[in-house]
Please model this.
Amino acid sequence: MKQAVLSFLRGGGSALPGYRLALAATLVWTGFFILLPLSALIIRPWQDGVGAMVAALHDARMFAALWTSFSCAFLAALLNIPLGLLLAWTLVRGDLPGRRVADAVIDLPLALPTAVSGITLATLYGPQGWLGAPLAKLGLVLAYSRTGIVLALMFVGLPFVVRTVEPVLKNLPRDMEEAAVLLGARPWQVVTRVIIAPLLPALLTGFGLALARGVGEYGSVIFIAGNQPFKSEIAPLLIVVRLQEFDYAGATAIALILLLMSLLALVLVSLVRWRLSVWGEQA
Amino acid sequence: MSVRVEHLVRNAPGSARRLLNDVSLDVPRGAFVALVGPSGAGKTTLLRAIAGLDNFEQGALLLDGQPMGSMRDRARKIGFVFQNYALFPHMTVAKNIAFGLDVLPRSERPSRSAIAARVQELLELMQLPDAGASYPARLSGGQRQRVALARALATGPGLLLLDEPFGALDPIVRRSIRSWLKDLHERLGLTTILVTHDQDEAVEIADRIVVMQEGQIVQDAPPEDLNRNPQTPFVMEFLGESSSFSGTVRDGLMVPDEAGILPFSVPDTVPPGPITAMARPYEIQVYTGADLLAAQATVSLVAEGVRNGYRHYRAQLLERSIPFCVPDYTEGRVKYQDSVMLNISRARLFRDGVLCV
Model:
């Protein structure tokens, strides 16, 4: 162990120059920009005393907000899986005219300022919106409810699924499908056993990324969510509310829980993905 | 299963260029046929058409005398081994092999234990008895190749189609798998069509060789026949190294244009006129008779060592050099550097791109 660390620091016998410089830069970079803020986030809540922290944790509104955030993000990421798969499929296999344009547009939710997407979605699905008004007549109210949150999170999360699945799908040999057909598989068997099965790890990665993004999403959600406490209030919004009330303990308590749960979710996703991709390991 | 291809035409997608140009082929039950030819000759296209993986514009395709319409009719009756094996990477070897049985509707599917027994039987046939639980990524090229073969055989097809199955294997594995495949073909009573660009492989393994060039079948014959009577210079060239000599037939004699090569008599059936003689390195002989005039003997020889039991030489003509070889055991080796003449009387004669008989 000690030897491994030492040889890692020394450059592991690499012939390339600049190893130590690169290593130092990397460590400083990750330290300052990732580890330092994260540790501050972990330490800060306890600075006002354990009592304040415990009091902050006894907050039903906070748990309601956390539940809203996580359940909506989970649902949105889940719904994005089939949607993203279909979209990636059309991009890779479909020879549609304007495919390149569609390919560029997919990334738009990532590039757009989240507030812009939020306002757009709110006007579109709001009670007076283009889609909202006819849907409201049918009795479907999307905006200002959890449905609205899921809708917004699906919008921002879709590129993650598409972009993780696309390269894997592109590299999936066509002759695998032909082999399956020649072995007597019916179309749905080809899709489920030969196409989706090897895509599962990629789908799961996309799911994890969309989930992580969804939990932390703020701008695109608040305009469409309605933000009623205990009903459609998301955790990031509650942090802002607490900060405006100068309740720093409360704000950091939510942040801490958010951090831990996100971490847990990502670890779980990674574990499942690791289980699913045993077959990819080389001899 | 017998295969009959009648006047098959297939165009390149979206153009009038013909990938297959009026191809007819008759493969009786139990035959082992090799499709050979350079890249782009249409070998794989023909194989894929037989498997039903590609459509064709004109012609007919009969399997066991029956036109086979849909893919579903063919499935499981044809075993296809792809060039890159096309194994399912996310399934174990056993699951890969069992795939053709697993996808059967419940009413036709054998029981779990029957499938497992069949898989094990195939693994043993492939000499991979312990590979069932591993994933394809962990296997070597030769092992993957055999798994692909086992998968193709699992449903008990009557026709086995192999698309350059030995392409990615090293020479030693190639050689051993060749004879093993031939043996398997006979043991299982299969009809096999093999695509390869390696003529040695084709000669060794197949009992009929179909040479293709530019989407057409140039010659279809047993290996020995092909070697003895290649129909065109292309077939001659393709089957192995050869040198061509242009000349003229006059008074029953072929008189080469180049100096240093002896004229030789040709059969009466060859009419006078310009002609091309083609000879393989081992068919070219050296003439050092006492009656040789010094002025005629313009060929000098350079020794190039011994390979595969042959002594190789290079004969320097005026404008080019010709490779030839003699068996290594010959007494009194050719004295190189001597001025000699070449005797090419064993060469094949071609006129206008066709063999003269």
Q: What stands out?
A: The first strand of chain B starts at residue 3 and ends at 11. The longest helix of chain B spans residues 171-188.
